Amino acid sequence: MKTILAVDSTTEVLGISLSENSKIISEIKDDKSCRHMVNIIGNLDTVLKNSNKSIKDVDLFAVNLGPGNFTGGRISMSIVKIFSMLSQKPAIGFNALDVFSVQCMLKNIESIAQKKSESLKVFIMPLMDVRNNEFFFSIYEIRSNKEDTGQIYEFDFRSNRYHLLKRYENCVLKSEEFSKKFPEIIRKLFILDYLRCFKCNDQIYEKNDFYKDSKSFAKDKTTANGSKKESILMITGNGIRSYRILLEKLKQDIEDSYDFIKIRIDEKNINPKSKYLNYMAHYSLDKGLESLPISPVYIRDFIAFGEK
User: Is 125 exposed, middle or buried (0-12, 13-18, 19+ CB in 10 A)?
Assistant: First the structure.
């Protein structure tokens, strides 16, 4: 039996949760005070007491590495590092985009399972507002079959197993550039037989079940065997809150152009929740990965005060 304590302070919501064998046994969400430094120890104590546990009972610590609130994220990382060092127990950290994608998958698993039962393609795009008018995002696919590379999570639901695979590495784009490239992203995901990195243009994702000729594919909107095949892109993350109008316009433009592509804006998934760190940590343990470096995710070069 593995006991995992997860902490997330990367947003205005402080989340702490305790799990045993993937079951959440105690959880707290502080979304009112925004005083993470002041409240985190008291909230940790509450989560442990509510489950009749102590810090000595924890087998693994998990934390969200961001990006996120610059100061807030470092509070949870520092706490996890200290407890890990004092207890001599391992700690593991996860990128915020991966957390958002797992959260989106599990929160929407019923509708996703329905789509997959119809052999539809389902993609997830976590989109984070990282200020400076920039998006931080990546692309994931949910599949019914396992692949050797790129898998970050898997989940059993109604006797079927679903695999979450990372299809595109993390990327930062200005909102104006994202708006221009979004149709290209859609074409490469759903129409062409490859997805290329927008920075280096390397081919990173091959697919065999779509036409290579995007124009002819868009014209008849059918798969290679002649049947219609709708595909779903779920946009999630805190970028929805900041750029809702922009995303609604992009969604409308794409759906007007391609009636076989549906875009869903996942409004239930604005802030990451700590319990999804527990699920990801349990999955990592099952795969034999017991620890990962605890280091904040930077999307820009970090320059210390006084340095040039």
Answer: buried
CATH of span 3-95+272-286: 3.30.420.40
| Residues of the chain under the 50 pLDDT cut | 193-196, 198-199, 203-227, 302-303, 305, 308
pLDDT for 224 equals 46
For the chain, which residues make up each domain, given as ranges?
3-95+272-286, 109-265
167: phi > 0 → left, psi -120 to 50 → alpha, else beta; which? Answer: alpha
pTM for this one?
Answer: 0.86
Would you give the distance in Å from CA 186 to the centre of its chain?
Answer: 19
Predicted confidence at residue 300, as pLDDT, reads: 67
Tell me what percent of the residues of the chain surpass a pLDDT of 70: 83
pLDDT single digits (tens) 16-59 = 999 998 899 999 998 877 788 888 999 999 999 999 999 999 99
